[in-house]
Amino acid sequence: MGSAFARNTRRQDLLMVVDLDERGSFCAHVENTNGKTVFQFSNEDEETGWPSEEGLWLVEDGFMKHARDIDGLHDYLKSIGIAQPSSTLRIGG
Hints:
Elements: H1 2-9, E1 13-22, E2 25-31, E3 37-42, H2 57-60, H3 70-79, E4 88-92
Parallel strand pairs: 1-4
Antiparallel strand pairs: 1-2, 2-3
């Protein structure tokens, strides 16, 4: 029981890594401290690979103010259960 409690109280540090940000295309992912991708997002159309006319869905749906809005992304990740309430999110890469 003690080890399960310690695991749940350990702070979750997340890192948003921008994979592509040029010529209208934006692609990024979020990693945990082990380097595992826990979330990824893009403005690329799944069928064509071109930037979507609607833009980045997280921005269009009001979760983020812009593609690098880590506060908005962090709030979204908490709301869908990926990020813990006491977690941190920083941007890198």
